[in-house]
Every structure is written in C-alpha cells, then in structure tokens.
Amino acid sequence: MNKTNNSNVLEVKDLNVEFSTYGGTVKAVRGVSYQVRKGKTLGVVGESGCGKSVTVQAILQLIPMPPGRITSGSAKLNGKEMIGLSPKDINTIRGREIGVIFQDPMSSLNPTMKIGKQIAETVKVHQHASNDEAMQKAITLLEKTKIPEAAKRAQQYPFEFSGGMLQRASIAMSLACDPTLLVADEPTTALDVTIQSQTLEIMHALQQNMGMSIILITHDLGVIAKMAHDVAVMYAGQVIEAGPVDDIFYRSSHPYTLGLRHAMPTNIEGADRKLMPIDGSPPDLFKPPAGCGYYARCPYAMRVCEKHNPEEFTISGKHFARCWLQHPSAPKVEGELFQIGHTENA
To answer: Is 343's pLDDT higher than 50?
Structure first.
C-alpha cells in the first residue's frame, strides 16, 4: 500500500516516531505506511500501545515535542507534506481540513463553556464567521448529529449532556469546518452498545452526505466490519497486514489478524466455538525485537522470524502482510489461516 495515488486524501509513508524517557527511547511507531482513499473509511485496529493513535497525533503535532519526535517519514494531505510544518501552518489544517473526534468527549470539551459556543469558536477561527453565523452553524451541526432541541442544547454545558450526546457534540465540533478527513479515535469506547450503533450510523450518514474520508481507530473488529472500506492491522508500532475489509476478515494473512478474529465473539446462528485469547504480551518497544514483533506469541513462528523482520508480501491486489509464512519458500499446512505452515527448520 505504498504507491502514490491521486485518489488518496492522506498518504503516510515510512513514518517513525520516538519518545525519550528516563528509561530510554521508546520506538512507538516503526515505519508505518498507509493511505486513506477519498470518501472512504480506513479502519486502524490493534492492541493498546501498538501505535494507532500516536501515528495520527504525531502527524497533527498533538504529541509533546519533546519528548516525542518524528525521526523520519512522510505524511501528505492531498499531496501537501505535513511533516515539518510550523505550528502556525499545522493550525490551519487542524480543525479545517482534518477534524478529530477524541476518545473521551468529556476531557476534550471545555467544562466551563457552553456546547454551542465551543463549536462556534472553531467556525469563527477557521471561517471568520460572525458570532451569529457561527452559532447558527453550531446549531445546524447539532441537528445533523441527531441531538434533539439543538438550539436549547447549544446553550447547555457538557455536564448536562449524557455520554452519547457528548460524543455527538464532539462529532459536530469536528465537522464544524467541513473537513476532507475525519480522524475518529476510539469514538465508541465509552458508550453502551445501543449508543455505539447510533453513533456509527450518524458518522456513516455524515460521510455519505459530505463525501469526507475517515480514519477510524479502534480495538473493536465489529466496528471495523461495520464501517471500514480498508483496514490496517497494527502491532508493535508497525502495520503488519492491510487491505480491503473483506480480505482482512475472510482471507486473513497474518497470524495476529487471525488471533484477533478468534478472540472476537460471533452472533452467527449455530456457531459453537470458544473465544481464544492471544497468549503473552506485546514486545518491549524500548528494545524492539530484531525480527517479527509477534514472534514470541505466534503459534506459527519459525527461526527466520526471530532475527529477520519480514518484508511486505502482496497477497492479492492491495492486500499485503508482513509475515514470513507468505514467502514462496515457506512450508504450507492445511487450515483456516491461508494455508500457512509451522516448522522448526525454516
């Protein structure tokens, strides 16, 4: 997924991000590359600490620098390089061209300001609208996100909103300037199942109406299946598998992706299987492994995996995986996982 394409809104290539700490240097993002197509949703999935959020936050300069720093890589928004932009220039992009929905709406909203005023501030700053124009747009956005009595609610404070309504207000704020790209960082984590579904439906409807692209960061494969067109599976600071959503779910080509699927409950009638958790823990990114980051936990691990980081193997079309089991010389075995094998001598 590294080819430049005019149909892409965002192109991230070989991005590396580190954090300096008292204990050493954490290599949080290690050579991440992915693209977001115009009008489509890229789902980014993986365990906590795998680099999903840090990748986007680093591009938008939302991490403290120092201790964080981008050591190499590129991130182009509609062909314009974002890495290395001054704070002034990046401020013209955040909120206007890229909207962000944060994981916890209560902490991302100012508890001392009314909801409508917070949304209107974004419109005033980026679109130079008058107070009345900005407030009217804020009310319109609250209506679009299905908040009842939007004009009344705009005059209320965050503590007067439920969790689901706060998330809708956050969505309204992120859309204030009609961005071409929306970053949704765990937008359904703190919500119950019913409100989760409503929130996703709102995001989908807004995407259809506005034609915007979305980066959806989540732990939830069910959310990915419902919303995403393309998927990037991250582990230990790397994208270890990526491709169209159907390929990721029905032709999983990395043991970690299969592990995530097996740890996921199913509602298929007649299905009778136990959930299979992934044993072990992710590697220490103070000292990343020389080989595959998943080596210590992988049931299909080979000797080559320990010392040599796998390259990207193309499975088909835009579907690729970083796994030595995709090498033409790797042994084959029967099974659900794309006929991959396990050997002590490979």
So the answer is: no
